[in-house]
Amino acid sequence: MDSWLLWSLTGGAVHATDATNAGRTLLFDIRTQRWDGDLLALFDIPRALLPEVIDNAADFGTTRPDLLGGAIRITGMAGDQHAAVVGQGCFAPGMIKSTCGTGAFVLLTMGETFVESRNRLLTTLACRLDGRPVGARSRRVLRSSWRSPCWPPLDCCVAPIPARRPAGGAIRAINAVR
């Protein structure tokens, strides 16, 4: 959807996607940051059909001038909870991002190291900035959050919790909606 939207906005000038959306296709290897040749061969998908994969914050081209009253530069792209991670600056290893919408998801940022979970968490890509991928672990905690209260409240990002918290120390939460 994202690459089609970008293609349409740029009048067909740019066929690209960001690393987080590419990673969700399961055809993109988040460790090597490349389309997986073995999977493309298995599913008989020509590499030439797939969009170029670039950083979340990058030059994605400009809109057609007739769409919005002038050409507007497109300088970022991210998918769903990944966009929330970037928007709230949850980049440091150990930061946790809760996103509540049609579902409720929790992402634990791992930094540039991708470690497989032994507890049924999905290893995913939180974002890629300046060519550096940031890994995360993800878990859906509610199937449909519009029917249930969400905790932490609304969308928030929680700073890493140290092994020992100083006396009187607090966990920092940043709400997306104030």
Automatic annotation (TrEMBL):
Entries under InterPro entries matching the protein: ATPase_NBD, FGGY_N
Carbohydrate kinase FGGY N-terminal domain sequence ranges: 2-87
Gene Ontology terms: cellular component: cytosol
A Pfam family matched in the record: FGGY_N
Keywords, comma-separated and alphabetical: Kinase, Transferase
Top-level division of the source organism's lineage: Bacteria
Residue stretches spanning the membrane: none
MF terms (GO), sorted A to Z: glycerol kinase activity
Any GO BP annotation: glycerol catabolic process
Similarity comment text for this entry: Belongs to the FGGY kinase family.
Protein's recorded name: Glycerol kinase
Protein source organism: Rhodospira trueperi
